[in-house]
Write a structure and sequence with these properties.
By secondary structure, this protein is of the alpha/beta class. It is built from eleven helices and ten strands. 44% of the residues lie in helices and 16% in strands. A six-stranded parallel β-sheet has the order 4-3-1-2-9-10, sandwiched between helices. Strand 9, helix 11 and strand 10 form a beta-alpha-beta unit. The longest helix is centred in the N-terminal third of the chain and has 17 residues. It is globular, with a radius of gyration of 18 Å. The two termini are 28 Å apart.
Length: 265
């Protein structure tokens, strides 16, 4: 039986999960957190499901060895490819995944047209297709794969002219099609909200699921009597790429510095 004071492991293919990490810290400030950026293998969106499952088994094993009481897959593509596999491997371990916010977007749209910005892997998945079947029967959903965005954000580029042009090329067709609601279907993309806000009319809703993931983690920990009573320990970071790369973007994306160790893979 895990202890209340045990940490929660949070992973992403790279730095995108920091957007979810921030939501968890806001809602659950007493929880000690571990973060793994699998940046040596980013982006996941173009990788095969088998490759991603192998990576997630490795990272889950690492979190287990660190004594984590729960694991958050702060990555839509990783959730699609690997969460079912991990639940078979760890049936008694609280696991929280991501999924694009199709249900709230379908409820929010007034025009009846919803746009989805996501990775190729997420958009091609059976799980995403099932979400559309379940929640989007009465709305038109236009999907837009966004190759290149993850790599820009990984490099700490949130506002360059090249990024602005790339993002506009993905967003403009959705607006022209009548979308009044945009789903950010990758945890990297919330870091582009300020830039997106300059590109889309004020009445266009921009939706992501970071806060919902934090609430689901809270529910799972509470149901098991595992909510920490604090105080939280300092968040610890690992990267499967050069640690200095993650260290360099933490102040920009997380709002403060942090010590990063190398994840052996």
């Amino acid at each position: 039986m895990a202890e209340r004071s045990a940490p929660v492991g949070v992973m992403d293919s790279g730095v995108g999960g920091l957007s979810v990490l921030a939501e968890i810290q806001r809602l659950l400030p007493n929880e000690s957190l571990l973060y793994v950026a699998d940046s040596g293998h980013v982006p996941y969106g173009e990788k095969s499901p088998d490759y991603i499952r192998q990576r997630l088994r490795h990272i889950a094993g690492f979190f287990h060895a660190q004594g984590a009481k729960a694991m958050v897959l702060a990555c839509n593509t990783a959730t699609v490819a690997a969460v079912a596999d991990l639940r078979e491997c760890y049936p008694d371990w609280p696991l929280v995944g991501m999924e694009p916010a199709v249900k709230p977007a379908a409820a929010a749209t007034r025009s009846g047209v919803v746009g989805v910005l996501a990775t190729t892997g997420t958009l091609q998945s059976a799980k995403f297709a099932a979400l559309l079947d379940r929640f989007a029967n009465d709305v038109k959903v236009i999907t837009q794969p966004c190759p290149g965005l993850v790599e820009c954000i990984e490099a700490g580029d949130l506002a360059s002219p090249a990024l602005r042009q790339l993002l506009a090329s993905y967003v403009q067709p959705l607006l022209e099609a009548g979308c009044d609601t945009l789903i950010l279907g990758c945890t990297h993309y919330p870091f582009l909200r300020p830039l997106l806000a300059q590109m889309v009319p004020a009445e266009v809703a921009i939706i992501d699921t970071g806060a919902a993931v934090a609430r689901q983690l809270q529910r799972l920990l509470e149901a098991r009597g595992l909510l920490a009573e604090g105080p939280a320990r300092e968040t610890t970071f690992w990267s499967s790429a050069e640690p200095d790369t993650l260290s360099g973007v933490l102040p920009l994306l997380w709002g403060r510095s942090g010590q990063v160790q190398r994840l052996l893979s």
